[in-house]
Amino acid sequence: MTDPDQSPLPYDPAAEGAQMAFDGRMSYGDYLQLDRILGAQAPRSAAHDEMLFIIQHQTSELWMRLAVYEIHAAREAIRGDRLSPAFKMLSRVARIFEQLNSAWDVLRTMTPSEYTRFRDALGQSSGFQSYQYREIEFLLGNRNRAMLRPHAHRPEILARLEGELTRPSLYDEALRLLARHDIPLPKEVLARDVSQPYQPDDRVTEAWRRVYQDPEHHWPLYELAEKLVDFEDYFRRWRFNHVTTVERVIGFKRGTGGTGGASYLRNMLAVELFPELWRVRTVL
Fold it and tell me: Among 31, 47, 109, 262, whose Cα sits 20 to 30 Å from the Cα of 12?
């Protein structure tokens, strides 16, 4: 019988076979390159809250890295009529933006007075200059060549973004899929200059109306439409939370990158990524 006054022995995972020695072997930290990741925070001030600001944006960029990866793959899957994998990828991207939305709650614990203690240390750097965010916008169809200029000092990034402007967007591929499934679409929409911003077209709304009026007959197209709407829903929330966070922390000051700050972000709220998928709801 165990002596009630005797403390139990400490748990030893090795007793159950856990690997405990890693000389010359790959560990968890090695696989994830944690030394590089956790050593990438370099505050430029003595302000306590600058670490929060850095980690918030670094983790957001990591999630965007995954979003870019998944959107590229989803677009290729749609182009190849592999819709089941595309649905899984689009669902994942929506959840990535749900995660990004939650991150604003952490940043909003920083007050205006705390931010002003290190804001000058940011110089002219701004989230407006995120090339991954720009690639996401381009992938989805919100294309604007003027937005290439902040990346002109990085030729490899500029080339990547310019290359994206030569390819059909995710939404372009969705519309081409409709046409392959015998949903009539105007030739000028299918053969448009994909480097330019997409312009809504009532005939495209009519095409989606046909899908929504008979979902059982057009189920794969119907499911794709809802996956795209679901994703844009989360994306819009992310934009709104961005505006709210900026207003809460800096009010209506100009952004560090020279934009109007909250006013610039509010303008972005009006952008529709998949416009006819929202408009079709009115005509059903």
Answer: 31
257: nearest Cα among 116, 122, 137: 122
Take residue 155 and report the two structure tokens written for it. 């030729």
Domains and CATH numbers, the chain: 46-251+259-283 (1.20.58.480)
What count of other Cβ atoms lies within 10 Å of the Cβ of residue 68?
A: 18
Please tell me the predicted confidence (pLDDT) of residue 257.
60
CA distance 199 to 231: 20
Length of the chain equals: 284
Q: In whole numbers, what is the pLDDT of the chain averaged over residues? A: 91
Q: What beta strand segments (E) does 122-245 contain?
A: none
User: Rounded distance, CA 28 to CA 38, Å?
Assistant: 14
Convert the pLDDT of each residue in 85-144 to its tens digit: 999 999 999 999 999 999 999 999 999 999 999 999 988 888 778 999 999 999 999 999
Asked if residue 200 has pLDDT above 90, the reply is: yes
Q: Would you give the distance in Å from CA 148 to the centre of its chain?
A: 18
What residue type is 7 in one-letter code? S
Q: Judge contact between 159 and 134, C-beta under 8 A.
A: no
Determine the average pLDDT of the residues in 198-206: 96
Query: Token pair of 270, please?
Result: 């009006």
